[in-house]
Amino acid sequence: METMKRAYISGTKQTMLMETPIPEPKEDWVLVKVHAVPLCTEYKGWLNGHEYSGHEAAGEVVKIAQPGKVKVGDRVVVMPGAPCGKCSYCISGEYIHCQHMVNTTEFSGLKHGGDTHVQYLIKQDWLLVPIPDGISYERASLACCGLGPTFGAMENMNVNAMDTVLITGGGPVGLGGVVNAKYRGARTILVERIPFRQQKAKELGADLVLDPDDPDIRSKVMEFTNSIGVDACLEAAGVVEAQRLCMDVTRRKGQIALIGECGEDLAIKASPDFIRKGIVLMGQWHYNLNGTFKIMKVICESPVVEKLITHVFPMSRIQEALEISASHNCVKIILKPWEN
Ligand SMILES: [Zn+2]
Ligand SMILES: [Zn+2]
User: Fold this and answer.
1) What angle do CA 2, 314, 338 make, to 5 degrees?
2) I need a labelling partner for 117 at 20 to 30 A (CA). Which of 13, 104, 179, 278 fits?
3) How many angstroms is it from 40 CA to the middle of ligand 2?
């Protein structure tokens, strides 16, 4: 049996490379040779010793089982998950919310059949987004979580050049939000405390960068918006304080998208927070499949999008990559599975 390299978290702050069988394409699942693997929140598993091995990738189709939506040689971005493709969520492009995810271990016969920290993976052909000519795998891979969640939120909120947008959290998702917001012509505020990420927000074109520990943060936002408040908030920090800030600085009839994962309670008062302000609060995980050509437009045309990529490592140096990821002195880190 032919094998490939897989990188994984083997314990608290530990990683390993292993040889594992190359999965076999069948039905509408095709084999992708992986060329770029963006890191996401894997560092959290690395800090806690939870084995977890990625959900973002871009690569080249090298083998198909049946004629379908892609052919051998196509360059593609790999969308996350293993949705069923048949339910109402999948049919309408909201596959990320599918209730009937395929069990990739069962389907592939491989324990780690759904991982992306690998040299080859299998994926349903309809979850592969074509990469335009001249765009690198690394740049194109920002169509995963780099730009994806905030793109989805801005599509739903119709963010445009009339708007002032506030984004909390300057990690890879929040800074991707700055790229999306500036591409759409919106005035953009980024709330972040780490100096490296504050500086990056300015490079990406943020109009105002605020520190969440600043006691005057609310009055500074109001001053920036002529005492009206912001039109749209994107919460990408995943902490209650940031959620509360969004509730407080969104204008009447404005919108808030919760993007940062969080299991803590946010206290809400129906009258002052919602009824009197008339705001809309939504949850946003990924983006509708119909948006893939538009997000590729951002990737092709944004003059700053590549600044989101701060580090590129051979996959064999995953330990070093996760150390930097956990330090937060980075934005998007990309692993190269075929480099040494
Ligand atoms: Zn489904
Ligand atoms: Zn991700």
Assistant:
1) 30
2) 179
3) 4
Task: Tell me how far the alpha carbon of residue 136 lies from the centroid of ligand 2, in angstroms.
Answer: 19
The pLDDT of residue 132: 97
**How close is the Cα of 140 to the center of ligand 2, in Å?**
14
Q: Which ligand is nearest to the CA of 79?
A: 2
Q: Which amino acid is at 296?
A: M
Ligand closest to Cα of 124 equals 1
Distance 142 CA to ligand 2 centre (A): 10
Question: Which pairing describes strands 164-168 and 230-235: parallel, antiparallel, or unpaired?
Answer: parallel
Looking at the predicted structure, is the pLDDT value of residue 112 above 90? Answer: no
pLDDT tens for each residue of 186-242: 999 999 999 999 999 999 999 999 999 999 999 999 999 999 999 999 999 999 999
pLDDT digits (tens, 9 = 90+) for 159-186: 999 999 999 999 999 999 999 999 999 9
For residues 311 and 321, the answer to whether their CB atoms sit within 8 Å is yes
How many angstroms is it from 172 CA to the middle of ligand 2?
9
What stretches of 22-140 adopt beta strand conformation (E)?
Answer: 29-38, 57-63, 75-78, 120-124, 128-130
Kindly give the distance from the C-alpha atom of residue 185 to the centroid of ligand 1, in angstroms, as a whole number.
34
The rounded distance, in Å, linking the Cα atoms of 284 and 173 is: 12
Q: What angle do CA 120, 148, 228 make, to 5 degrees?
A: 165
Q: Which two tokens stand for residue 128?
A: 């592969």
Q: How far apart are CA 79 and CA 325, in angstroms?
A: 22
- pLDDT band of 37, cuts 50, 70, 90: very high
For the chain, count helices (H), then strands (E): 11, 15
Asked if 30 contacts 65 with a C-beta cutoff of 8 angstroms, the reply is yes
Q: Please give the distance, rounded to the nearest whole angstrom, from the Cα atom of residue 188 to the centre of ligand 2.
A: 23
For residue 269, the CA-to-ligand 2 centroid distance in Å is: 32
CA distance 124 to 239: 34
Q: How long a stretch of residues is the chain?
A: 340
AA letter at 136: S
Six-digit token string for 262: 């969080």
Give distance in angstroms: CA of 143 to centre of ligand 2: 10
